[in-house]
Specification:
By secondary structure, this protein is an alpha/beta fold. It has a single domain, classed as Vaccinia Virus protein VP39 (Rossmann fold, 3-Layer(aba) Sandwich), CATH 3.40.50.150. Helix content is 30%, strand content 23%. It has five helices and seven strands, in the order H-E-H-E-E-H-E-H-E-H-E-E. It has a seven-stranded mixed beta sheet, with helices on both faces. The chain is globular and about 40 Å long.
């Protein structure tokens, strides 16, 4: 997988710290991609040492529709991998009234903004954290900025991390952390 699509090191460390601090019991990751965010989440979960239900959903289109062999690595033992388009999984999870303490979304960059509200309102548990990657990458995904604007308009508690201090960073693509109270 292309290095440029991976979550940058700054945002990965932030994700690890948020998991370490929140200590979620149920984690949902939408989109495996390169696995960089998965490794960041796992680092936080391992630091916490407590059991956690961890589900990753991906349609594997970046891998020609086939779940990559790397997901069988012992590093990912205990993760429930679900092969599904994001919108289908979200619809089924809403119907089942599932909730998650920590949700990381970096999957369907063309349409994920369309189900942001139900994910925030119903899938995200109280005191949960919901993270979207690439929200200020308006060159490639201008539609994702709508999630940020929805947070502002609705008065949600959020933090947007999208500033670079070095030329080798890619923080400007944006990481939006939304906190539900």
């Amino acid at each position: 997988m292309d290095e440029i699509v991976k979550i940058d090191v700054n945002h990965a460390q932030l994700v690890t710290a948020l998991v370490m601090s929140q200590k979620p019991g149920r984690v949902l990751e939408l989109g495996f991609g390169s696995g960089e965010a998965t490794r960041a989440i796992l680092a936080g979960l391992r630091y916490n040492g407590a059991g956690c239900e961890y589900t990753i959903v991906d349609n594997w289109l970046d891998f020609d529709g086939i779940q990559p062999a790397i997901t069988q690595d012992p590093e990912y033992a205990g993760i429930n991998f679900v092969t599904s388009p994001e919108n289908v999984f979200v619809s089924e999870a809403l119907h089942a009234q599932n909730q998650y303490d920590f949700i990381f979304s970096d999957a369907d960059h063309m349409a994920t903004q369309n189900w942001f509200e139900p994910v925030y309102q119903q899938l995200l548990a109280r005191a949960g954290i919901l993270i979207y990657h690439d929200v200020t990458n308006t060159r490639d995904f201008p539609n994702l900025l709508r999630i940020y604007h929805d947070c502002v308009r609705n008065g949600y508690h959020y933090a947007l991390f999208n500033n670079n201090s070095r030329t080798d960073e890619r923080c400007d693509r944006g990481l939006l952390a939304i906190f539900k109270h």
